[in-house]
Write a structure and sequence with these properties.
343 residues, 40% helix, 12 strands
Length: 343
């Protein structure tokens, strides 16, 4: 619920911390800036003030996630959103969160760069009486009461879906007894997506003694690093059957590396290609048969967050975990979703 005692300190704090955030965080990349400037609200507007630290702008998925939240938490809906881009640096997120605490915002939201290292700053938020909502990624905390709710994907399930799809595909192709060599392009080390998609896939892979994971290498969820890591895989391993890429941007880079070597992927290709996120450009490649399967990670989480905050404002209880709906896309089903894909 809104805390009226903040009325006389919030305006000065907000102006001060906006200047601090601008000086701490240099200009960002992507379609949104490090801090999205907005006219400081008049107290009479009675807006719910939310500070949001996004981890970065490393991918098309992340951009769509940011836009979804910005479209939901608008002035028209009763919100003032202060948005900061941490550029994939935990220290930037911690500075931003402390800035939000100093401003006495009503809610703090952030998507953690990594799972660990948040206990101290979130304890400060709790002591200040500010509810914290985790977005997309999770935080490993000694005390779960340090956050109010989490909105995101079941990434262990995503990894399992990839394994189940591969299991069924190999069986359909009559290759279930064949020795299968797999390489994995992983995301940012220590992130929920990297940890949980890896765990989920391994839950299935361990049931198949003929599946051999030759190498797992972080590629930071970026196209450039994805290409670099895939080039390394191709130099070191002559017989790769399956490439698993933990997001579409890395997949685009991996495809560049394989195309330069004359290696084909997907339906009737040399290598089975499994990707995650399901952004529009990747789904076009699924439709063309270049990517075999893309496991959706739904970035459109803004409406879920909006509903949570409205419940909290009304004094209602909310679920601790809020999982968004997601699909698995193959060439058989992807075309019906392409025209309506907004990211």
């Amino acid at each position: 619920m809104r805390r009226p005692y903040k009325k006389y300190i919030r305006l000065f704090g907000r102006m001060t911390c906006l200047m601090l955030l601008f000086s701490v965080l240099t200009a960002g990349c992507g379609p949104f800036q490090d801090v999205v400037p907005e006219e400081v609200p008049n107290e009479e507007e009675n807006l719910v003030v939310v500070g949001f630290s996004q981890l970065g702008s490393e991918s098309l998925w992340r951009t769509a996630n940011s836009e979804s939240i910005q479209k939901a938490l608008t002035r028209e809906n009763g919100f003032f959103l202060e948005f900061s881009n941490a550029r994939q640096k935990q220290e930037n997120q911690i500075k931003a969160i402390r800035g939000f605490i100093s401003q006495r915002v009503d809610y703090i939201m952030f998507s953690p760069v990594t799972e660990s290292g948040w206990d101290t700053v979130l304890r400060e938020a709790k002591d200040a009486g500010i509810p914290v909502i985790l977005v997309d990624r999770k935080a490993s905390l000694e005390d779960d009461s340090l956050y109010t709710a989490w909105v995101g994907s079941d990434m262990i399930s995503e990894g399992e879906k990839a394994g189940i799809w591969l299991e069924e595909y190999l069986k359909k192709e009559g290759r279930e007894e064949e020795e299968i060599n797999i390489v994995v392009l992983q995301g940012t080390v220590g992130s929920s997506a990297q940890l949980e998609r890896t765990k989920g896939f391994h839950n299935i892979a361990r049931e198949h003694s003929n599946w051999h994971i030759l190498k797992q290498e972080p590629a930071d969820f970026t196209t450039a690093k994805g290409k670099e890591v895939m080039e390394m895989f191709l130099r070191n391993y002559a017989d790769i059957d399956v490439v698993i890429s933990q997001n579409d941007d890395m997949t685009f880079g991996a495809l560049q590396a394989m195309e330069e070597k004359g290696i084909t992927t997907g339906v009737d290709g040399d290598i089975i290609l499994i990707s995650f996120d399901a952004v529009h450009d990747a789904l076009k490649l699924v439709s063309q048969g270049i990517i075999n399967v893309d496991i959706e990670c739904n970035p459109e989480q803004g409406e879920y967050i909006l509903e949570i905050i409205r419940k909290l404002e009304n004094g209602e209880s909310v679920d601790k975990e809020n999982i968004v709906e997601e699909k698995v896309f193959t060439q058989e089903n992807v075309d019906e979703y392409l025209d309506t894909r907004t990211y």
